[in-house]
Amino acid sequence: MTERDGTLDGVHRRNLSKVLGLVHLEGPLSRARLTALTALNRSTVASLAGELVDLGLVVERAPDPTNRVGRPSPVIAADPRVLALAVNPEVDAVTVAAVGLDGSVPMRLRLDVDHLVTPEEVAAIVADTLATWRETSLRTSRIVAVGLAVPGLVRASDGMVRLAPHLGWEDAPIRALVEEATGLPATAGNDASLGATAEHLFGAGRGVDDLVYLNGGASGIGGGIVLDGRLVGGAGGYAGEFGQNRPGIADAADRRAEGGVLEDEVSRGRLLEVAGLAGGDEPTLAAALAESPGPEAAGELARQRRILATTLANAVNALNPSLVVLGGFLATVAENDPGALEAEVAQQAMPAATERLAIRVAALGEDRLMIGAAEAAFSALLADPLAHG
């Protein structure tokens, strides 16, 4: 029996993928609900669920008590013991997390670094973390793949990091290095594009077909674009690099980097400086800025907000999204005065393009890049559970 789409085997594999994908994206679902969502008959859904249980990908449990007449339908849920490792190398830290097929994040490690890590160092960190977790906290779990969220241009075809300027990487085969170090299949993608995927599927953009996501991290600003429900990658997978655009700055007094790009002006480093911090994660920065009573922090937040608003207005005019999502330190800039940001965007964008526009901060917080990287790592398993179960 072949695996071509028209064969019975191909249909069976697609149906397994459909059921697993639903419980992965939607959470625990009753067999009755799965029957309705898949348009398959009850016996087929029961058989598919049983097969996924045997493959160790889902668990089946008794339904919650109900007052309804008749026998309640068993509930199918993604097995939380099936995990992907998610990795985000940055200029100040390497973060590794274990993300469950059910969306849980049982383990997370931020390793602060005092130098720019090389691709080889990242691969070694991932391998060491994997070995430790397999012997301790995750010894009963099954880790199926590794996903890497890299702040740079990542070629979609093979995961080659063509350029990560802040890390000093050029043509870095990070995917191959991690696969060799861990023995697991790996994927690599731009961190902001993966963040866009996570927020679209599970966060602030859930259920929204047209959105723009901007991510602010230690390496600068990246972005992701979802149009008509699909992530826009571009010819090589490099779409969404908003941070490298030249910002429009109406007031010359707002400019800090002559001829600089957006991420030179709207900068985490500048916010750390006015907050009096040498470094730290995003919650630490946000808390420090909130506790800064002087005019310097407030002035810098307002300056960055004005420049960010112009960038967002240009994106709204060009792409007409119904939602803009801001993550990382950009969420801190937005939350400082969300009304002002919305007004400044509306003032500069075409009125018709802002009629249905909402601006929100990322709902997944610090987990957004981890969940996005894991989603990429799970993609092969979700597409064909029988081949990877």
Key terms:
Nucleotidyltransferase, domain 5; alpha/beta; 5-stranded mixed β-sheet; Arc Repressor Mutant, subunit A; 389 residues; 3 domains; 14 helices
What's the structural blueprint in terms of helices and strands?
Elements: H1 8-26, E1 29-30, H2 31-38, H3 42-54, E2 58-61, E3 75-78, E4 82-89, E5 93-100, E6 107-112, H4 119-135, E7 142-150, E8 153-154, E9 161-164, E10 169-172, H5 174-182, E11 186-190, H6 191-202, E12 211-217, E13 220-227, E14 230-231, H7 262-265, H8 268-275, H9 282-290, H10 295-319, E15 323-328, H11 329-336, H12 338-348, E16 358-361, H13 368-383, H14 385-388
Parallel strand pairs: 4-7, 7-11, 12-15, 15-16
Antiparallel strand pairs: 1-3, 2-3, 4-5, 5-6, 8-9, 9-10, 12-13, 13-14
Helix pairs in contact: 1-3, 2-3, 4-5, 6-13, 8-10, 10-12
Q: First CA to last CA: what distance? A: 19 Å
Strand order of the largest sheet: 6-5-4-7-11
Helix count equals 14
Our Rg estimate from Cα atoms comes to 22 Å
Q: Helix and strand string, N-terminal first?
A: HEHHEEEEEHEEEEHEHEEEHHHHEHHEHH
Q: Based on DSSP secondary structure assignment, what is the total number of beta strands?
A: 16
CATH fold topology of the largest domain: Nucleotidyltransferase, domain 5
Query: What is the mean predicted local confidence, pLDDT?
Result: 94
| Low-confidence parts | none
Q: What is the helical fraction, as a range of percent?
A: 40-55%
**Shape designation:** globular
- Structural class computed from helices and strand pairing: alpha/beta
Overall CATH architecture of the largest domain: 2-Layer Sandwich
Strand % is: 15-25%
Largest sheet geometry: 5 strands, mixed
CATH homologous superfamily label of the largest domain: ATPase, nucleotide binding domain
CATH class of the largest domain: Alpha Beta
Number of domains: 3
